Amino acid sequence: MNLLKNLDTLRRFDSFSKTIEDFRVKTSGGGLVTLLSVWCMGVLFYAEVKDFMTPGITEDLFVDTSRGPKLRINLDIVMPTISCSFLSLDAMDSAGEHHLHIDHNIYKRRLDLMGQPLEDPQKEDLQTSTSVKSSTEAPNITKSVELKNDTCGSCYGAPKEIIKCCNTCEDVREAYRIMQWKFPDPDQVEQCKNDQSNLAAKGAFKEGCQIYGYLEVNRVGGSFHIAPGRSYLIDHVHVHDVQPFSASSFNTTHTIRHLSFGLNIQGKTNPIDGIYVTTPDGATMFQYYIKIVPTTYVRRDGSVLQTNQFSVTKHQKVVTMGHGESGMPGVFFNYELSPMMVKYTEKEKPLGHFLVNLCAIIGGIYTVASIIDGILYHSYRAIQQKIEIGKIS
Question: Which residues form the Endoplasmic reticulum vesicle transporter N-terminal domain (predicted)?
Fold first, then answer.
């Protein structure tokens, strides 16, 4: 008896009063609302599960105190109107000094003017620039010097203490670089008449070139560039020898297929990947100023990835004589490392939060669906009653 009495007491607290099945009314409108509610629940359930499976990411910013690791530069750049034999890649630090002992894996691939490969890529040998001293004007070459296998080729006025013999076209070019003389017409130099470099010059603008691979340099600010001509130093100034052409002869239209710093992380986008830049005004110097932010990515399993994010500002100027601008045609990248580091950490989302969201979806949709069903049912009943008393025909 006491148990039944206690149950009667509990019945007064029942917030979920029951209706006898005979008094329940099922309508087609209610069925439609139920189907829509189930569909909405399914969509929201899927979105919630997907969000729960995706790790949460926290972001921290702090001063970069790391030392030691190299900076990896990944690049893939196409120069569609300059042959590979007339392009060089140079890397320098922020003081203008050439990087020495660079670990690299850079390749050049010859392309036709339509961008199709002509042969297998060739590995590029990055060399330090040749240092030369200033001198006087070059002598005039009025007649060719005939070479024999057992003779010492003429250097056309260059002192013997500089280069004793010039038996190849490259020897003559090197002598003229050292003396800072303008190189004459190759057809006037006996060593250059049948030289491969002279023959390559005739096809300098009949091919394109793809330069791709990676460099590993010290983690300091610096620059690298792709420019026509062979690089060397004059009084510690970096210059390019583009003979027998002038700098204004080169069209530096280019495509940056890819440029990144450090390891590639899935989903990371790089700001200038895929851009195509044309030069309608002739020889142009393109300068990309890059701000690199070191980035650490910590995964849920504890593994750490070191990479970099960066932003880019582009500047260009025409360097032909008619525009009065100084500079050298080419594509120049100047990069600077930020003293701050960003750290992204993956974290699992709590299961309790996931379950609470599922309950909120069920309760919210059920409540809204009940309100909509009630409005539809009572509206239908009101209209039906008015029809029955003849107020609406």
Answer: 10-99
